[in-house]
Amino acid sequence: MNIERIRYADDVPISVEYTRFPSSFPFLLQEDLNNYSLYEILKNKYGISFGISRKYIVMEYASFDVATYLNIEEGYPLLCIKSTVCSPDGKKIYRSKQLILGDRFELIV
């Protein structure tokens, strides 16, 4: 199951997020993923625990669709964060790809 979200800061689109879940997660389609943290919903409402999370950070250029979503020019450089999130026993919970406007975002590691 795939979920795509446009994330906003002060009503301005700053990122596009693509998340892929196993087919056993259809309950997420009933949730308000625009106004609430995905982690909080999974953890607090469904009791899902998180273990290892691996992130890869690269630069990617905006495709036509992403440029349209973010109101930028096609080819604009974006910060791309690819993540794999697993449960404490090592089972994959989800994979995601975030495309972020680097000039409107601060990443704290």
The level-1 CATH class? Alpha Beta
**Domain unit count:** 1
Structural class: mainly beta
Mean pLDDT: 90
What low-confidence regions span 5 or more consecutive residues with pLDDT below 50? none
Q: What is the C-alpha radius of gyration, as a whole number of Å?
A: 15 Å
The CATH architecture term is 3-Layer(aba) Sandwich
Kindly report how far apart the N and C termini lie.
Answer: 29 Å
Query: Per the principal axes of the C-alpha atoms, what is the gross shape?
Result: globular
Order of strands across the main sheet: 1-2-5-4-3
As for the CATH topology, it is Chorismate lyase
Q: Largest beta sheet, briefly?
A: 5 strands, antiparallel
CATH superfamily: Chorismate lyase-like
SSE series = EEHEHEE
- The number of E-state strands comes to 5
Helix content, binned percent:
10-25%
Give structural notes.
This protein has about 110 residues and is mainly beta. The chain has a single domain, classed as Chorismate lyase (3-Layer(aba) Sandwich). The protein has two helices and five strands. The chain has a five-stranded antiparallel beta sheet with strand order 1-2-5-4-3. It is globular and about 40 Å long.
